[in-house]
User: Which sequence fits this backbone?
């Protein structure tokens, strides 16, 4: 039976799921977990949703070499399948055949590190496999049935902080009804229980996402038209359990263009925010400077701004932008990253 201390520590672990400082939360969870099951070392492993590789996101008590082997090599052993198929986390000491203790992984990585017992649990969230948790002890028989059950009861909380795709939507500004996906290069990873953003089918928008990710953007709010419908778009460099350079969280919802602006006026306003003159904008659209001047006048009237500078500031502040990727001799999406990413 769990003691009062076990229950209290388990409650602390559960509360850490909502801790804003995710790095601290994961480390503290492992510290408390070692106390609960009386282990000497623990490692939390997350699955990279883009390449399927296992990566350690928190660890206590293991050397760098042992931690690497638990993240990389363990998933390639026969015992990995046993972990995936076990209802409760298997332990070395309670394995009936003791094949793990006689295997190469134990002999090469576990025993030389001074550990005599260990157990591993497969982390799942909403039915998806999201990672592993390893625990080790220098004592033989440290992890009995009670310890295995204690770990099993805490694995949902560990899965919540190791779930890369699931953690992505914790970012501010993402609404429950938004369509959401993680994007990196040509890869799109769906976010659990969310629909894929329709704008990702537009090649021009994908270039915007790529430029945002490549430039190290933090956050950008914009508008994007698709199939006669405008979408409010958010691009975000998410804080994830694993480091994914260039990964972008895209979230969208249907929207109405504010201030009654037309599509052309949004495009002109975007270029004002990029610092372009009327002549340069006219060259972009193959129109006369006089026509662009009229568009600018309409923009100022509709937004009730008194100058191009004021209109440009409003566009960035309220995300009334249709981003332009990679223009010759122009900053493109990068023009908005410093101001819009704060």
Assistant:
């Amino acid at each position: 039976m769990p003691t009062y201390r076990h229950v209290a520590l388990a409650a602390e672990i559960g509360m850490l799921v909502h801790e804003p400082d995710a790095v601290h939360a994961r480390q503290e969870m492992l510290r408390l977990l070692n106390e609960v099951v009386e282990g000497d070392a623990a490692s939390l492993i997350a699955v990279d949703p883009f390449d399927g590789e296992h990566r350690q996101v928190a660890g206590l008590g293991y050397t760098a070499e042992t931690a690497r082997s638990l993240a990389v090599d363990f998933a390639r052993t026969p015992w990995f399948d046993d972990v995936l198929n076990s209802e409760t986390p298997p332990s070395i000491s309670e394995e009936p055949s003791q094949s793990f203790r006689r295997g190469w992984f134990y002999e090469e990585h576990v025993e030389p590190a001074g550990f005599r017992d260990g157990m591993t649990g497969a982390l799942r969230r909403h039915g998806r496999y999201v990672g592993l948790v390893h625990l080790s002890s220098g004592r033989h028989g440290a992890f009995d049935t009670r310890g295995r059950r204690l770990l099993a009861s805490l694995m949902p909380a560990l899965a919540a902080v190791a779930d890369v795709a699931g953690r992505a939507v914790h970012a501010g500004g993402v609404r429950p009804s938004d369509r959401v996906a993680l994007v990196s290069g040509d890869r799109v990873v769906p976010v659990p229980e969310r629909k894929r953003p329709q704008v990702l089918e537009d090649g021009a928008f994908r270039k915007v996402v790529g430029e945002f990710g490549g430039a190290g953007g933090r956050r950008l709010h914009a508008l994007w038209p698709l199939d006669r419908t405008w979408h409010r778009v958010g691009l975000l460099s998410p804080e994830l359990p694993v480091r994914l350079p260039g990964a972008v969280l895209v979230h969208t919802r249907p929207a109405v263009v504010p201030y009654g602006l037309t599509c052309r006026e949004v495009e002109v306003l975007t270029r004002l925010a990029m610092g372009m003159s009327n002549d340069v904008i006219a060259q972009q659209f193959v129109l006369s400077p006089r026509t662009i001047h009229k568009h600018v006048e309409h923009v100022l009237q509709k937004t009730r701004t008194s100058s191009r500078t004021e209109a440009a500031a409003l566009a960035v502040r309220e995300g009334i932008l249709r981003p332009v990727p990679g223009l010759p001799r122009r900053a493109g999406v990068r023009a908005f990253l410093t101001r819009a990413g704060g």
About this structure: The mean pLDDT is 90. The first strand starts at residue 41 and ends at 47. The chain has three domains: 4-162, 164-257, 259-319.
